[in-house]
């Protein structure tokens, strides 16, 4: 089973999973579930915050000169714990979840709104579990302390 999940991780990197969910949101969109300016404003705000979180986190990792590739968590050189990482162990995935929710709201996809936890579960099982296992092995005590202090999502 573990070998199968490893293959799935390579075939379905997080951005690809997000695109699959966005396509599903678009395919299940219904104009009856859009509320004009309200949808646009809420979606834009949520998408802006989510995109900022993703970009800020990527910038933090680049400044610390550590890997951003979820398939190579074992190559991490630094455990980043500041900024967005001070309140979420997975701010990029949280931001992706926010983008998926924002898009589902924007296009009027109730199925997409309901599917946000499914997106989070898919990312957690395919990527976060493996990444955290690698970080636990690499940073041992520092990781244990960080894991106790900061929740996985929020």
- Written as H for each helix and E for each strand, in order along the chain, the element string is HHHHH
Distance from first to last alpha carbon:
29 Å
**Count of alpha and pi helical runs:** 5
- What does the overall shape look like? globular
The overall pLDDT, averaged over residues, is: 94
For the sheet with most strands, the description reads: none
Measured as a percent range, the helix fraction is: over 70%
Class from helix and strand fractions: mainly alpha
Q: Key features?
A:
154 residues; mainly alpha; 5 helices; 0% strand; globular; transmembrane helix; transmembrane; Isoprenylcysteine carboxylmethyltransferase family protein; membrane
Report what the structure shows.
This protein is mainly alpha-helical and 154 residues long. Helices cover 70% and strands 0% of the residues. It has 5 helices and no strands. The chain has helices at residues 2-11, 14-27, 37-63, 91-107, 110-149. The chain is globular, with a radius of gyration of 16 Å.
């Amino acid at each position: 089973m573990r070998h199968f999940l490893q293959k799935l991780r390579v075939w379905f990197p997080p951005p690809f999973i997000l695109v699959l969910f966005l396509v599903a949101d678009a395919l299940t969109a219904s104009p009856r579930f859009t509320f004009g300016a309200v949808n646009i404003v809420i979606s834009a705000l949520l998408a802006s915050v989510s995109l900022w979180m993703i970009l800020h986190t990527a910038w933090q990792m680049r400044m610390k000169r550590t890997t951003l590739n979820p398939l190579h968590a074992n190559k991490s050189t630094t455990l980043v714990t500041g900024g967005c990482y001070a309140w979420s162990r997975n701010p990029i995935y949280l931001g992706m979840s926010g983008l998926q929710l924002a898009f589902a709201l924007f296009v009027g996809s109730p199925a997409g709104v309901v599917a946000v936890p499914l997106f989070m579960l898919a990312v957690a099982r395919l990527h976060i579990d493996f990444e955290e296992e690698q970080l636990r092995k690499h940073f041992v005590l520092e990781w244990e302390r960080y894991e106790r202090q900061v929740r996985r999502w929020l």
